[in-house]
Amino acid sequence: MNHEDNYWIRRLSSGGVSRRRFLGGAALLGVGAAALPLVGCGDDNSSKTPTGGSTTGLSGNTDLSPLKSMLKLPTDSKSLGTGLSLKAGSVLALSGSGSFYGGVMSKGINLATAQIKALGGPDISMTYKDHKSGDAQAGVNAARELGIANIPMCLSSYGADIGSMLPGIAQYKMLTLDGGGGASPAFQGKPYFYGTRAITPDDTFPGVYEYVSTKMPDVKSVQYIIWDLGAATLAPSEANLKKSLAKYNLNYLGMETAPIGTTDYSTLLARVKQKGADLLQLGIWGLDPGYFMKQFVTSGIKSKIMGSEFTPDAAKVAGSAYDEYTFCFDFFDANNPTNDWGKSFADAYKSANGAIPGFYEANYYEDTFALWELVRRVIAKGGNVKSGDDLNKALLDNPNFPSVYGGSGSTPGSTGIDPSTHTVKKRPMGIFTTKDQKTTMVASFDIGGADYKLV
After folding, report:
1. Which H helix or E strand runs over 214?
2. Do 65-198+335-416 and 202-329+429-454 show the same overall fold?
3. How far apart are CA 149 and CA 147, in angstroms?
4. Buried b (16+ CB within 10 A) or exposed e, 199-236
């Protein structure tokens, strides 16, 4: 290890480096964030229990019997894992600007763990850790603390806190699924780490620009507005955008970056106005799109907008400005699930929490069931269900899981993970318009723009 490697590790260990500097420095050194070794850190990331909503996840009258056939569950208690007590971790944004995410994700997890036990599965004890809405040091701490506690499986978010958790995940052999940030191009193929959602906005580009070319014919130029995530993450994403634009002869007017949690976009919008792009492709999340749109509509800029997600909290910040907002991602429509498991999930979530679930609730619900699927596979092979290595092998042997997305009737959808890239091969996505805080799908497609159709 050379002098520069030691410098970045000391800076990360001391807490004196931001996520942007960490990722940018790692890229500058020619290594990904996941290539840096885990180092000892202070314990400032104590376990947290998310507050609000149902604590058990279940309401009193939930009938789970249909799930047994839908999910093709075994009938004997041993194969189900009945009576087992298993530990799992979950590293979410429980505080900070993205705390909305941690709140709804944990409710999806709580519902799943309660249903799994009620279906005869193991009692999964979930240890929650807070990465503080993208703090790299908190991610490092969380992975280390879970690893020291011998927790073999984990649900993460923010792309395993934008890479900071990956060294710990590998060191402690902790099978980790990320249904919030997925596995970005910079972190694909990393040991024990898997993205279980489409990469946004990258995976949306082929379908988005098919839609733009036909339904927005006045769009001739595009500018990219994205979180400042460092060169290792931004370079491949920008290349993916350029590739899709070139297919439709659209001009690329460059990229503008903004720090995570930005609330004042006035300076950035002034620069954007000078470029005069016909469409702005947004790669910002959380409350940030709400603040962006609120200021965008009064800026005098006439560009169209293509966002990367929709959340109620950001829509509340934006108010009527979201009537100008179009977005695309793998959106779970709880009002019209395509398969019975999705409908069962939506009904159970509403009954337990008094709210209609969205994308993040759905992802962490089905990811928790995926962990149970892996546990059952390990049991069937006589392996050790408390071994992250055995769980990882079970995933690589068959990287396919039932999903609340897609499918039809009593047949659930399917999520397939590429064993090489560790990201999803198929994931239904949609383009949506917004009006009065309500969304309407206008086009749908899958990874790579497959099965594209107007709605």
Report:
1. helix 205-215
2. yes
3. 5
4. bbbbbbbbbbbbbbeeebeebeebbbbbbbbbbbbbeb
Asked if 318 and 325 touch (Cβ cutoff 8 Å), the reply is: yes
Q: In this structure, which CATH number among 3.40.50.300, 3.40.50.150, 3.40.50.2300, 3.40.1740.10 belongs to the domain 65-198+335-416?
A: 3.40.50.2300
What is the rounded CA–CA span in Å between residue 179 and residue 176? 10
Identity of the residue numbered 226: I
* Residue owning tokens 């793998």: 330
| H or E stretch at 430 | strand 429-435
What does pTM read for this prediction?
A: 0.82
Helix (H/G/I), strand (E/B), else coil: 395: helix
The pLDDT assigned to 8 comes to: 26
> How does the average pLDDT of the chain come out, rounded?
88
d(C-alpha 455, C-alpha 442), whole Å: 5
Point out which residues pair with 283 in neighbouring strands. 226
- 421 is written with which tokens? 């890239």
pLDDT at 447: 92
440 CB contacts (<8 Å, ≥6 apart)? Answer: 432, 433, 434
Can you give the three-state secondary structure of 100-159, one letter per residue? HHHHHHHHHHHHHHHHHHHCCCCEEEEEEEECCCCCHHHHHHHHHHHHHCCCCEEEECHH
- Cα–chain-centroid distance for residue 198? 8
